[in-house]
Amino acid sequence: MTVEEWLGEENQLGTDIWEKKYCNEGESFEEWIERVSGGNTEIAGYIRQKKFLFGGRILSNRGLHEQGRKVTYSNCYVVDPPEDNIESIFDCAKKLARTYSYGGGCGVDISKLSPRGAKINNAAKETSGSVSFMELYSLVTALIGQNGRRGALMISIDCSHPDVEEFIDLKTDLEKVTKANISVRVHEDFMEAVKKNEDYLLHYTREATGEVIERTVNARDLFRRIAETNWDYAEPGALFWDRIEGWNLLSNTKDFSYAGVNPCAEEPLPAGGSCLLGSINLSEFVQNPFTDHAQFDFEGLRHCVDISVRALNEVLDEGLPLHPLKEQQDSVAKWRQIGLGIMGLADCLIKLGLTYGEEDAVAMCDNIGFAMADSAIAASALLAKEKGPFDACNTEEIMSTPYFQANTTEKTRELTRKYGLRNSQLLTIAPTGTLSTMLGISGGIEPVYANYYERKTESLHGTDVYYKVYTKIAESYMKQHGIKSDSDLPDYFVTAMTLDYRQRIDMQSVWQTHIDASISSTVNVPNRFTVEETENLYLYAYEKGLKGITIFRDGCKRIGILNTSESKEKESKKISAGEGLKRGEILLVTDDVVGKKRKLTTGCGSLHCIALFDPHTGALLETYLSKGSTGGCNNFMVGLSRMISISARGGIDIETIVDQLNSSGSCPSYTARRVSRKDTSKGACCPMAVGNALMDMYNEMQDELAERRGAGSEKTAKKIEKAPKPKAVNTEAETDKMYCPECGEPLVFEEGCNICKCCGWSKCH
């Protein structure tokens, strides 16, 4: 079998994703299957049938340690929360760096750190607070590369911590802690105080000095602050911590506690904890799809769960020595967490003719979820029979948990009673954005985001032409029923933006009943969604027993983070100085150019940037760079400015030039100065700072030209009329979108991840 046969000859996007993300140095599809399956023929069969896929780290990394590569198979870790001393705080940063270098994402909780103003016995006299160290952890995340990617980080804090308000407000500054997700651990006593409109005590006792810091706030005001910030910035998320601690296989195990959650919050884990991921594609278990005789293959699902649990345990054993830190190896050996999840749920329901969020769909999910949980527990018990239970297994404590009792048949209980369990954690629902996009299915438990996407192409005459590309499930239905327009699709083809939020939460709630870990969850809501509705959504999520929730409101200010400046500009028509030049021709610069200047502060000192623009089109023509008295290497600056200038005069547009400059990476001296003095220009190194300055001056130039077009003389207007006109990006319709940094097409936000349906680019936040 070839990858084209596996994914479909027409699925070029899926093939591109496989080649870029998972294929190792030109290996064939069959070689890849052999590598990622580890020789397990049954799991290889399920992969070939597209019924199961391991998580991305396993698909890309399994077996590569034999080539001397430092890799891990785990997507996610939770680092031991830092203690309230400087050594522990920086030890935590070191652990993050080492874990990122192996390709793992991390979660860290900062609730043990002293709040701002606490007395300390050093030169500072009082602490800058727990929140002040978040920038350190964010910078570590930005610095450590992962084969072209950055690390992923989740930072959490308890709702009773005196710094919680500062924590909530932190990311309203779009320049701060840009490399981390943040969430608040919310407790039942706080939520009850919210409902009763009562006061709530924020408190912290510093062990080193015995100092007690307490402050009373109105619970409803604090809750509204969380909701309002989430409405506007898509953060912080809420972690309903008592539900997390109380609904799992270890809730009655006295020597166990969760230390935090992973970056997408689907994996609560102990200190040093790690989890291996895999997902079952539910849409492939529907028999006779799109017909009145459609039914779900429960027996087939149970067998697939059994084989998947065994395969993930094989990966766990193989990858045990590959974890970056000794404490991670010890934790995994002791608790043996795996995370089997699902994808393609929305497609599955459509094939069954069920409407996502309606009662019959919720009932079907209840049945599927129970079958998964019962089968997974039984499979783990049978593995314990063969290989022994996990080291810390206490069977009586496990069987007494509310989760176990609600999710097992008598047969499974008997197996567990006899043999214990091989794993302390079995099920999770992680983001499957890239995997599901590769297969052409819906992700996780999410509804279909849209039935079609608009693609743009440019005709021979330079005119933008838009056309519809239907999602695979819609296209399959339309072909089978001879439908030509999406307007003729049945009512059960609902999408994320048409659902009532209660339906979305009802679906997550029924799945959470059967998932012992958690669910990566971002509820997409339209721009018109209000703060009051956000509060109601959070309250409803709490009442329905969710473990965590956040929202993403279309057009919220978070797009200022997610939408890079260069990706926004790519949506405009590119303006270059040398339009129409033949290869090798260089444009001569006349004397009527418009000059602009910026002074930059870099890691080495100061840098002066002068840019010359075409007075009619605003296209970049030349750049001059010179260091200040304390700047860096002047010869380097001269060389860089010459290369920028000749590129611009050779017809390369500024967006492409800046994109190259922004790919330069991070400079340690730049990072150090940003932390110590906080006065550096935007960027992570000198070339990046230059690129940002050039784009800033270019935008300023375009604004000036736009003003002249609106108020200039007839003569000026005629002169400008001949110039290429950039497509405006100031309308609400344009700025409320996110754009892919690879291809410039609009992104969608699913399961906490930005996903491009055109080129497959993805990033989780």
From TrEMBL:
Residues 74-551 form the Ribonucleotide reductase large subunit C-terminal domain. GO terms for molecular function: ribonucleoside-diphosphate reductase activity, thioredoxin disulfide as acceptor. Residues 592-697 form the TSCPD domain. InterPro entries: RdRp_reductase_class-2, RNR_lg_C, RNR_NrdJ/NrdZ, TSCPD_dom. It catalyses: a 2'-deoxyribonucleoside 5'-diphosphate + [thioredoxin]-disulfide + H2O = a ribonucleoside 5'-diphosphate + [thioredoxin]-dithiol. Residues 707-728 are annotated as: Disordered. Its EC number is 1.17.4.1. Its cofactor is adenosylcob(III)alamin. Residues 707-724 have a biased composition (Basic and acidic residues). Catalyzes the reduction of ribonucleotides to deoxyribonucleotides. May function to provide a pool of deoxyribonucleotide precursors for DNA repair during oxygen limitation and/or for immediate growth after restoration of oxygen. This is Vitamin B12-dependent ribonucleotide reductase.
